[in-house]
Amino acid sequence: DDDTEIYLFGSIHALPPETPWRRDELMDVFEEADIVYFETSARDSGANYMDFFQIGLAEPGEGVEDVLSEAQYTLLSMDAEGEMAGYGVENWMERELASSREVRSLESSTSVAQAFSDLPMEAQIAMLMDGFENPDPDDMNGFESFQTTIRDWLKGNPDALYDDTMEEMRVRQPEAYAVMFTNRNTDWAEQLNALMTEETGTILVVAGAGHFTGPESVILMLEDMGWKPEQF
Prior knowledge:
single chain; 11 helices; about 10% strand
């Protein structure tokens, strides 16, 4: 509006080293923004990681070894994640931000963990094992799928990102999808709408790219509120 400008940057949380994502236009906004929002930031006093880990502790008899079949547990134990979160967008940005910069969180560290914890155990297991039950014999570590996600992201193609990465989850795991995307997107869109009237200056919001695509995206929700987001 007249005194507030919000930039939304869809991130990838874990990236291969040397991925060329830091284009000049983005870096200009990153350096000049009055406020930088992340999904959750360790700098935000509202983030309580002890509570986060407490939520993640299983009750007796509900540990991973207890609720998974022997075959499921074997598959999970064999997984080796080849990409590093240390090269992800948020980690890089948080390292680069001076301590004097104003950094905020869109949500507390416990909100999503609590929502997942409240899901039926069957839904929790389905999300945990997604991609392992019927692995592609030529893609045991999901590398090709991950590379497709990166390509769609680097091209700035949100529709392809949704088709290649998110649509299957929305169809196969609707409960988990609602927790991960729909519910959070609704909350974030309301926050962004309020920021326009409550704040002034330039605001950069950095959140997973999946939140800005698909039929329940933050973008569409903002449009329903009367805003007209433009791809930058």
